[in-house]
């Protein structure tokens, strides 16, 4: 549901690459999640570290939320966490990463010659018409994108974050 929390019906994801970075942001170790999204870095010396989570195919990081240790996603939109001061012998098991599948919004702009609301064989798509996608993601990010329809009248907004959106069309009769 892209709310930044791992809800009971949201399983962990296997095969996500997790990199351990030192304070200079150099990768010093990497592992892959398994057994429902679990990962571990053993025998770490005391120091300042951060993590980077590589997004699975067709997914993006979900919202960052604070205040829900062990349940919330801790990475930014690039998969990076903040720096953590690790004291040797510590065990930190609450640095989590939530991902959500992105979507797409597509359609066709055409001249509806018989005004029946259906694209019929005799009706053609309208090229170079402006289509606007406006809304807000579940993380609170405002979205305002515009594009022109393709020569066949089609449009596609790809890799769209979950949220609530409206489409607007600027159509000048030909």
* Beta-strand residue fraction: 35-45%
The string of secondary-structure elements, in order, is EEEEEEEEEEE
Over the alpha carbons, how many angstroms does the gyration radius reach?
Answer: 22 Å
Give the helix/strand class. Answer: mainly beta
Distance between the termini: 42 Å
Overall description:
The strands form 4 sheets. This protein has a 4-stranded antiparallel β-sheet, with no helix packed on it. A 3-stranded antiparallel β-sheet has the order 9-8-11, with no helix packed on it. The mean pLDDT is 88. It has no helices and 11 strands. The chain is 0% helix and 37% strand. By secondary structure, the protein is mostly beta strands. The chain has strands at residues 17-22, 27-32, 47-53, 59-61, 84-86, 99-101, 103-108, 130-137, 142-148, 154-160, 163-170.
Per-chain topology:
Blueprint: E1 17-22, E2 27-32, E3 47-53, E4 59-61, E5 84-86, E6 99-101, E7 103-108, E8 130-137, E9 142-148, E10 154-160, E11 163-170
Antiparallel strand pairs: 1-2, 1-3, 3-5, 4-6, 7-10, 8-9, 8-11
